[in-house]
Write a structure and sequence with these properties.
Layout lengths: L11 H7 L17 H12 L5 H8 L11
Helix pairs in contact: 1-2
Amino acid sequence: PGSTPFPYPTRFRPAALQFPLLHRAVATVLIGPRSPSHVDSNVAMLNFEIPSDLWAELKAEALLPSEAPTS
């Protein structure tokens, strides 16, 4: 209840998993898989190609701070 759909064609989970890795101080994102299929899914999400303009659009919509590292 109360969730807002991610308004972009890119899937939300890959973008959410990849975003922290854009910061130079982040070396690892820990993901808690519960099964081998979750491991496969998580790897796929980390390899999913995020369109380069997504981060700029999120900043323009004030969904990300303008100073957030995105490249």
